[in-house]
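Need a sequence for this fold. Nothing fancy.
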């Protein structure tokens, strides 16, 4: 038995830790994956808030269209990308497999699909900017197509990692439930 003030227990040299209980590896992995997914959800929430702010400011004409450009068509369906994040946040505290599956499927539908459409929609404008150096839409003085492509690059990475980590977490949850059923 360990003592703070006294000598070490007789018969031990400190190497007897092998027999002690440890947290199972799938629980450790689950905690680590949940943490990563939460971080990615927060980053996605930040992207979503910025996108929603641009759409709201533009639609309500709070500032001139020279300062904040009119949103591209793909930005409206992308606003639905908050749905997978909500389901993801709901799935994590109680290891809810159903919510995590809904989150993964809807991430492909509401997150990745609008981003792919956005790349295709903005490609001619980006090509014109690259070839002729002319931009017609601006966001705070920057070319709107450049800013939105930057947003797309970041968002694709965030959503890709969200789906990847969610799949790994789902696998961890399935293995732990299968282990419980075997016992």
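Here you go.
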């Amino acid at each position: 038995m360990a003592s703070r003030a006294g000598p070490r227990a007789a018969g031990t040299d400190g190497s007897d830790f092998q027999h002690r209980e440890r947290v199972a590896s799938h629980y450790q992995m689950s905690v680590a994956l949940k943490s990563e997914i939460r971080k990615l959800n927060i980053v996605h929430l930040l992207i979503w808030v910025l996108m929603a702010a641009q759409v709201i400011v533009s639609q309500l004409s709070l500032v001139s269209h020279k300062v904040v450009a009119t949103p591209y068509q793909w930005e409206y369906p992308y606003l639905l990308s908050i749905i997978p994040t909500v389901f993801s946040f709901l799935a994590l505290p109680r290891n809810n497999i159903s919510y995590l599956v809904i989150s993964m499927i809807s991430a492909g539908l509401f997150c990745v699909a609008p981003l792919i459409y956005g790349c295709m929609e903005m490609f001619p404008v980006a090509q014109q900017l690259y070839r002729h150096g002319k931009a017609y839409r601006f966001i705070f003085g920057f070319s709107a197509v450049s800013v939105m492509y930057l947003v797309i690059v970041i968002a694709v990475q965030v959503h890709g990692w969200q789906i990847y980590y969610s799949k790994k977490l789902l696998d961890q949850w399935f293995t732990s439930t299968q282990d419980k059923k075997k016992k």
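For context: Residues 58 and 64 are 8 Å apart (CA to CA).
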